[in-house]
Every structure is written in C-alpha cells, then in structure tokens.
Amino acid sequence: MGIRTRAAEAACREAVWTRRPDVLQRLARSARAEVRVVALTGLVRVGQDAYVAGYLDDDAPLVRAVARDATRRLGVDVREHYRTAVNTDVPALGAIAGLAETGSAADAPLLRRMLDHPSSRVRVQAVRGLRLLDEIRAADVVLVRDPSPAVVREATLALRPLVSALPSGLPWELLANDRMELRRAGYRLLRGCGIDIELCAALILAVDAEPRLAERGRADATRITRDVTRTAWHYASGPELPVTAAKHAELVALASRAAEAIGEETSRQLIGWLANSRPGE
C-alpha cells in the first residue's frame, strides 16, 4: 500500500507541474481510496473543484472530506446535498455517511427511515450514522435482532453506552440465542457490567458450540481468574463477591461445567477462589 501511494503521489506531482488534469482524473477513478485522495488533492491544486465535488458520495471518508472542501468553495450547501441524496429509494452508502458527518440531530429522521431498508448495507450505514449523531435510543434495541449479522454488530456497538437503560434480561436472552451473532451481541453488552456478570458470561461462552466464541470466553475467563486470584491473597478468606448466595452458587456451577474448557490450572484457581469468597446476602 505504501509503494502504491508513493507512486500515485509522484504521478500526481508530475501531473500538477505539467498541468495534466486528465492524468489526475484517471487516478481519481482508482479503486484504492488513498490514490483517489492524492489525485483529488492534485485536481484541487489545478483548479478542478467542480470535478472534485463529484466525489461527495464516495465510500471513503478522506475522499468525501476533500470533496466537501471543494464543494463549499463552489458555494454549494453540502448538508443539503446529502439530505437530498439520501432521500431516494437507493441511497449511496457514502451519502448516508456524509450526512452523519455533516448533519445534526435534525437529520436523524432521514436516517431512521432507512432502518427498514431492504439492503443490509444501507441499514448498517444508517445505524452508524445515528450513532455518530448521538441519536441512538434505548428503544432501538430491536436493531440487535436484525436478520443481518453486520447490522447486529453495528447496533451492539451503538447500544453499549445505553446498556443500563436496556431490559436487564436482554443480554442474557441474546447470549442464549441460537444465532451466533446474537450470542456475541449479548456477550458484548455484558462487558463492563461488573466482575461477577463478566465472569458468568465468560464461563457460559467458554463452552459455546462456536469455536471463536468459545475461545473468547475461555480467554476472558482466564483473564478474570488471573486478576481476582492475584489480589485474593490480600484477604484472610478471599475477597467478598458482591452477589447473592444464589448467584454465587450459579458461578460455582458454571465454573465446574467449564472446567475442561478453561483448563486445569485456571479451573483450580477459580474454583478455589469461589470456595473461599464470601457472597453477600
């Protein structure tokens, strides 16, 4: 990639010096975003703002940024361009991203309108746009059950800051779902919710039928166990767990079930820590 970019930069410098916009325009049609950026920058330098403005809806953020600068110099309202561009049956993905980059909360309805679009790529970009505009709401939790794994991933990322406002049982329901991407979503929503919750989720995931999810669960269970047992020696009988006796018993059962998956040493350390810890009432 570095060699290609340096070659494009050299070609663009030569084209700018020799006033060859045709060369720059050819490079601007490259499939590589880094080449398009260099070529469009060269076109700006030779006074081709009108040509560069045609890249407002490009898929690449840097290309859109260069195009917006050129468009504004032409006196065009960039935000209005994006509002018009997304208000079609088949909006360009770059236009949706561009609206999120330049818009405001007032543009959220335009993005929400696309959450039911038949194209999953459009729905992904709409969710991402709402997140960038800080317009994701707890009611948008329905997005995590979208048929598209890509939409589920984007919705999970958008909803994580709002996890305390979501139904408390939802992440656990997702973690038990038949769809792999929903189990991953449930697990991600439980991250950062407290050591007992993270440990419980990690032990559940450690025995998941999907190897990649199981690997993630094992790794996190091992990390949590290492961290808690490293500090346990500070306590006469182990650090107190901020959980009820029933939850403590559930953790013990999960640790036993996942013993083979997490390995003998980690299992021994975890079960020993749980046995010496003091659950709350």
Automatic annotation (TrEMBL):
Superkingdom as given in the UniProt entry: Bacteria
SUPFAM superfamilies for the chain: ARM repeat
Name of the molecule in the record: HEAT repeat protein
